[in-house]
Amino acid sequence: MHPVHTGPHLPGVALLMGLGALAERPAGPVPTGFVPFVFQGVVMLRKLTRTDNLIQQFDTVLRTLVPHAAQPSRPSPALKARDGDMDDAERRHAEGLMRINHTGEVCAQALYQGQGLTAKLPDTREQMEHAAQEEIDHLAWCDERLKELGGRTSYLNPLFYAASFGLGATAGAVGDRLSLGFVAATEEQVGRHLDAHLKGLPTGDRRSRAVLEQMREDEAHHERWALEAGGTRFPAPVKFGMKLMSKVMTQSVYRI
């Protein structure tokens, strides 16, 4: 139990609430492992219990895998763009590319969730959670764009989610440097996919292009952060193996 800081109107609030360690919220972002709430006009922090964490994890799974469930924290870049003309074949191709990108974000969300669960250092966990929120934005944007194109998300998403979660949790359990290195290598692969998709999108699909350009910027930031935080630079053979695995995903998800 952590010490409780009570203001003049909060005597014995921890015992009264029966919800674990409480403290008056300091200025700045909410620390990892705590949740804010208001009590008698004062914003307090409550330390999350194991049950809370399990509920959060399950909520993340649902928001990731259930279509249209993810809620972005930023508006979609597509709102600032207007599509040109596209024929049916171009629209189907754009749909296939955006389905790949959506599944890529499903994998990224699972990867960060698994790593955040087993990461050793609090700072690493916080950065993982921040990156995961940006990936939620990407997930929601791709989902919205797929809907606009008349498409759907991949039926294979649960399979790729489970595989990515396992890889992330394993990397995090081995150590933060390996975990961060895995993030950097993954984001490098994602960046290459996005570059290829930006070149392959139909000229008239300006809304998808706007989404992918912002995603590319965010992914490059994630890669830089992971390396600057001490992530291991993976050797070429490891990256080649990751490239082969990602190729399986892209080729299967384009249509399924």
UniProtKB/TrEMBL annotation:
Recorded GO MF terms: 3-demethoxyubiquinol 3-hydroxylase activity; metal ion binding
Look up the record and give one Gene Ontology term from the biological process aspect.
ubiquinone biosynthetic process
Q: Which cofactor does it need?
A: Fe cation
What HAMAP family has UniProt attached to this entry?
COQ7
Give the record's pathway: Cofactor biosynthesis; ubiquinone biosynthesis
Question: Major place of localization?
Answer: membrane
Q: Which NCBIfam families match?
A: DMQ_monoox_COQ7
**What Pfam families does its record include?**
COQ7
Q: Which organism is it from?
A: Modicisalibacter xianhensis
Protein name listed in UniProt: 3-demethoxyubiquinol 3-hydroxylase
Please list the reactions this protein catalyses. a 5-methoxy-2-methyl-3-(all-trans-polyprenyl)benzene-1,4-diol + AH2 + O2 = a 3-demethylubiquinol + A + H2O
Protein task: Catalyzes the hydroxylation of 2-nonaprenyl-3-methyl-6-methoxy-1,4-benzoquinol during ubiquinone biosynthesis.
Task: State the membrane topology.
Answer: Peripheral membrane protein
Name the SUPFAM superfamilies for this protein.
Ferritin-like
Q: Which domain of life is it from?
A: Bacteria
One GO cellular component this record assigns the protein to is: plasma membrane
